[in-house]
Amino acid sequence: MSLDILKDRIPDYAKDLRLNLGTLSNDITLTPQQLAGTFVACAIASRNDAVTRETVAHFKSVLSAPALAAAQSAAAIMGMNNIYYRFVHMAGGEYSKMPAQLRMSVIGNPGVDKVDFELWCLAVSAINGCDLCVTSHEKIVREALGTAAVQTAARIAAVIHAVAVTLQSATALEG
């Protein structure tokens, strides 16, 4: 299991992350596809090669090729949208009334159930810290799947991000 590789690399000072990673990877709040896609999208958003590689390896058998592509697309499109809409929110003024003029057709046709894609976009938006995107995607996911699913996505985002930060700092301090 590839998540075991990540857990083995987590230093003892961050053992809670190891435990949380194990618990969340077996969570039953989400369907297997929702869980796997959330982990994969968050791993990509974490910007840590080891976390991404091992997480994708761990969950690849759960995701069909279109679902894996959709999780990758969620991380990619939110990487763009989170920056743009965070700017709009921070700058205020007339920017919120202007069309974004950014291509984002994957949101309308993600290749998986729309709610799964929204869930993955929510989790990535939490990592990227975009208030407008979190608010928008949270509403859709909450209405379709309930608050427990929203919380699980946020917990996965938090743990994957923390694992990425911890492993990155451990690597930097070793060399």
Largest sheet: none
Q: How many strand elements? A: 0
The fraction of residues assigned to DSSP E strands is under 5%
Structural class: mainly alpha
What share of residues is helical? Answer: over 70%
Domains (count): 1
What's the average pLDDT? 95
| CATH class category label | Mainly Alpha
Number of helices: 8
What radius of gyration results from the CA coordinates?
Answer: 16 Å
- Low confidence ranges: none
Outline:
With 175 residues, the protein is mostly helical. Helix content is 74%, strand content 0%.
Strand-helix topology:
Elements: H1 2-9, H2 15-25, H3 32-45, H4 49-59, H5 65-91, H6 114-128, H7 131-145, H8 147-174
Helix pairs in contact: 1-2, 1-4, 2-8, 3-4, 3-5, 3-6, 3-8, 5-6, 6-7, 6-8, 7-8
Function: Antioxidant protein with alkyl hydroperoxidase activity. Required for the reduction of the AhpC active site cysteine residues and for the regeneration of the AhpC enzyme activity.
Active site: 130, 133
Protein name: Alkyl hydroperoxide reductase AhpD
Label this structure with key terms:
redox-active center, 8 helices, hydroperoxide reductase activity, single chain, AhpD-like, EC 1.11.1.28, oxidoreductase, 175 residues, AhpD_core
Describe this structure in words.
It is built from 8 helices and no strands. It has 175 residues and is mainly α. It has one domain (2-100, 112-174): Up-down Bundle (AhpD-like).
